[in-house]
From TrEMBL:
GO CC entries: plasma membrane
GO molecular function: ABC-type transporter activity; ATP binding; ATP hydrolysis activity
Protein name: ATP-binding cassette sub-family G member 1
InterPro entries: AAA+_ATPase, ABC2_TM, ABC_transporter-like_ATP-bd, ABC_transporter-like_CS, ABCG_dom, ABCG_transporters, P-loop_NTPase
Residue ranges occupied by any ABC transporter domain in the UniProt entry: 56-302
The entry's keywords: ATP-binding, Membrane, Nucleotide-binding, Transmembrane, Transmembrane helix, Transport
Listed Gene3D superfamilies: P-loop containing nucleotide triphosphate hydrolases (3.40.50.300)
UniProt cross-references to CDD domains, sorted A to Z: ABCG_EPDR
Family as reported in the entry's similarity comment: Belongs to the ABC transporter superfamily. ABCG family. Eye pigment precursor importer (TC 3.A.1.204) subfamily.
Main location: membrane
Organism: Temnothorax curvispinosus
Signal peptide positions (record): none
Topology relative to the membrane: Multi-pass membrane protein
């Protein structure tokens, strides 16, 4: 494998950075000047499977959310979109505009099917009612979020190749997929970044890579949430120019939300849909915007940017009320353009339409996602190394502090060592994933929604990395500290000790996944430790019969208690011989005496192990269910 570069370099393509810079300058001169020098206007070779053209219409779209009102101490319903309607044709570049908080992203999310909960109304695709969850719709469309969410430590080429394998499966040859990848990268002006790490791309390049990744299946409808936000004017023009080209070639429907574009950029859009306060105040061609506003008494001053003007009108700066604008928008004629949907009257066109190849199968998805995880970790191993080193160092420290406590009759020191060890393994197992997972969520949301893979392979690929690593960390700690503290060197005891400790650590990790998935990061930070401590006190220095009745159930479900008692029994049970007494009298010279007094003289280690692992499996199932709900019940 080639070493990834940290900046775009001319590799695998005749196109160079110098050409890119020149094209950027061309773009700044406006759309009319974008010529053959520009990457984005290079001819598409049409090697992608032809996809159906899609006309999208929507009626009475409403979005309601339930809000908790502290003042009234009740839940109230708030309507954000108030029954908007419209129609977007294939081959059109559509801009959804409006003041901040008008409902642009909400409308885009509802149309894309990204938001389902709370949305009512009807969306039709080529005249047929669309279900947002339908597989057919998901195959036809893609949704690109505002923030570019890419894995920073894989290269552009690797990201594209992996996406191609996942999305296009293995029914088509790797050579064909590679040619698709190269063609798309060339089309989007990213060929020279093939070996560049995604994290090192510029904002504009990231946006284009986002688009390239989704274009692999050649979707008919592209939804983009504020694709130009955060870009300079040159990159904005490039981005809108690219979207325009995507709409024109193959007559895709490209719909994006946009913040106050320049007059030049605005002209590149075919259709404008202006939202204010959750209502539509204009829908139609860009060229008809100013005449329409003039008809309601809002005259655009000369040399004023129409995009700025319509926003100013929407927020009432020209004295035109929202009601008047909404009423005027309702009188706008529907688009009379011919519907270009592929229906039975166009059999030869319809014949050319192909379903994209089936995506990779379950096991292949697991393998590819696992490979991606490993690749990222290989390049960014500092965190893993830190985790491993910390375990080793703490093992040395504990070993030093409790040196020899394993064979001495000073049982209390060993008792504290065993408790501390388990607490350490529970904390490190839990917190590492509790905090890391919320960051993963955004990538998962985007890729899962765009049908890259299913949830189960994704989750399995994460576990295939996290479980062995946590087990390795725990082992490194246990080996060092077990030996230094002088615990009994007997095969069975060593095996039980290691297995129980690692199992408890992995179950804590499962809890960590669950907390990370179900709670916001700020709450997860303290909820994780609180739960760990809560379960740990039941079993440590408190006996079952001393525990108030109301808390006794905690004994039965505490994997910490099960783990701790099993460790004590493994070390002191199974008829262990007398401990070394270096003083005149040692109360716990006989290990069985200690176990008797702690009321843990009949521990069944295997049963406890089953309980620990059972809770771990249960937590993973609950995590997967919570993830499924998050992904599918938005
Ligand atoms: N789930 C929700 N709960 C409560 N309010 C919401 C929710 N989703 C959106 N809103 C509110 O709806 C309004 C519209 O939000 P939206 O994100 O669609 O605005 P926008 O036009 O895209 O704004 P911007 O341009 O600033 O991103 C905002 O006032 C927002 O606070």
């Amino acid at each position: 494998m080639t070493t990834p570069t940290t900046h775009c370099s001319p590799s695998r393509s005749s196109l160079s950075c110098c050409q890119f810079d020149r094209s950027s300058q061309d773009d700044m001169r406006g759309p009319a000047i974008i010529g053959n020098n520009n990457y984005f206007l290079q001819r598409e070779k049409h090697s992608f499977p032809k996809r159906p053209q899609v006309d999208l219409s929507f009626r009475d779209i409403r979005y309601r959310v339930k809000e908790w009102s502290i003042r009234n101490f009740s839940i109230r319903e708030k309507e954000i979109l108030h029954g908007v309607s419209g129609e977007f044709k294939s081959g059109e570049l559509v801009a959804i505009m409006g003041p901040s908080g008008a409902g642009k992203s909400t409308l885009l999310n509802a149309l894309a099917g990204f938001t389902v909960k709370g949305v009512s109304g009807e969306v039709r695709v080529n005249g047929k009612v669309r279900s947002p969850q339908s597989e057919r719709w998901k195959r036809t469309s893609c949704y690109i979020q505002q923030d570019s969410i890419l894995r920073t430590f894989i290269t552009v080429g690797e990201a594209m190749t992996l996406a191609a394998h996942l999305k296009l499966g293995y029914t088509i040859s790797s050579a064909y997929k590679h040619s698709q990848v190269l063609e798309l990268l060339e089309m989007l002006g990213l060929s020279h970044c093939y070996d560049t790490l995604c994290g090192k791309l510029s904002g504009g390049q990231k946006k284009r890579l986002d688009i390239a990744l989704e274009l692999l299946t050649n979707p008919s409808v592209l939804f983009l949430d504020e694709p130009t936000t955060g870009l300079d004017s040159s990159s904005c023009s490039q981005c809108v120019g690219l979207m325009k080209r995507l709409a024109e070639l193959e007559r895709r429907t490209v719909i994006c939300t946009i913040h106050q574009p320049s007059a030049l950029l605005l002209e590149m859009f075919d259709t404008l849909y202006v939202v204010a306060g959750g209502y539509c105040i204009y829908k139609g061609p860009v060229s008809s915007l100013l005449p329409h506003l003039a008809s309601v008494g809002a005259h655009c001053p000369p040399y004023h940017n129409p995009a700025d003007f319509v926003i100013e009108v929407a927020i009432g700066e020209y004295g035109t009320s929202l009601d008047k604008l909404v009423a005027a928008a309702e009188t706008l004629p529907n688009d009379q353009k011919r519907t270009v949907a592929l229906t039975t009257d166009q059999p030869e066109e319809a014949e050319k339409v192909k379903e994209p190849p089936p995506p990779a199968g379950f096991l292949t998805q697991c393998y590819l996602l696992y490979k991606r995880q490993l690749l990222s970790l290989k390049r960014d191993y500092s965190l893993l190394m830190a985790r491993l080193l910390c375990h080793l160092l703490i093992g040395l420290l504990f070993g030093y502090l409790y040196k020899g406590s394993g064979y001495r009759a000073n049982v209390l020191a060993n008792y504290v060592y065993l408790y501390g060890s388990l607490l350490l393994l529970v904390y490190t197992g839990k917190m590492a994933v509790t905090l890391a997972f919320p960051l993963e969520m955004r990538i998962l949301m985007r890729e899962h929604f765009n049908r890259w893979y299913r949830l189960a392979p994704y989750y399995i690929s994460i576990l295939l990395v996290e479980i062995p690593f946590q087990a390795a960390c725990a082992t490194s700690y246990l080996v060092v500290s077990y030996w230094l503290t002088g615990q009994p060197i007997e095969t069975n005891r060593i095996i039980f000790f290691m297995v129980v400790s690692i199992a408890a650590s992995l179950t804590a990790q499962a809890w960590g996944f669950f907390i990370g998935v179900t709670t916001p990061i700020k709450i997860a930070v303290f909820l994780g430790p609180i739960i760990a401590v809560l379960f740990s006190i039941f079993g440590f220095c408190i006996r079952y019969f001393d525990t108030p009745h109301v808390f006794r159930w905690m004994f039965h479900i505490s994997y910490f208690r099960a783990g701790f008692h099993s460790l004590l029994y493994t070390v002191y049970g199974y008829d262990r011989m007398d401990l070394l007494c270096e003083e005149f009298y040692c109360h716990y010279k006989r290990p069985s005496k200690f176990l008797n007094e702690m009321e843990i003289n009949d521990v069944n280690v295997v049963n406890n192990l089953v309980l620990i692992l059972g809770i771990g499996v249960l937590m993973h199932l609950l995590t997967a269910s919570a993830l499924w709900c998050k992904l599918n019940r938005r």
